[in-house]
Amino acid sequence: MFLPDAKLEQPSLDPPSDGAMVINRLYLSERTSRSKYLIDTGADVLVINLTTASKHLTPASLQLFAANGTVISTYGQQLVTLDLGLRRVFKWPFIIATISQPITGADFPTPLWVAC
């Protein structure tokens, strides 16, 4: 609703002018497995959770860190095929880690949004 000479009731959606990094999050469901993936432009790596089938894997030397500083153990990589219903199927190497929610990040959304 447009209110002339009125103040914004909600904060602006414009990026901050102080140079702060903007992090956007979106959840998408993978069509085949029905798994939910967090699409996080602030994430630096692609990560999937350690499943029951992959619990036999030995820990890798790579350690990830959560935003609160907690160490996240990793167990190697796995090529994952994602069908997110977005005109094409995506294949990427994901790091297997002890997390609860699969995360896609890095530059995944950027070329996708430009192409749409």
From TrEMBL:
<dbReference type="GO" id="GO:0004190">
    <property type="term" value="F:aspartic-type endopeptidase activity"/>
</dbReference>
<dbReference type="GO" id="GO:0006508">
    <property type="term" value="P:proteolysis"/>
</dbReference>
<dbReference type="InterPro" id="IPR001995">
    <property type="entry name" value="Peptidase_A2_cat"/>
</dbReference>
<keyword id="KW-0378">Hydrolase</keyword>
<feature type="domain" description="Peptidase A2">
    <location>
        <begin position="35"/>
        <end position="108"/>
    </location>
</feature>
<dbReference type="InterPro" id="IPR021109">
    <property type="entry name" value="Peptidase_aspartic_dom_sf"/>
</dbReference>
<protein>
    <submittedName>
        <fullName>Retrovirus-related Pol polyprotein from transposon 297</fullName>
    </submittedName>
</protein>
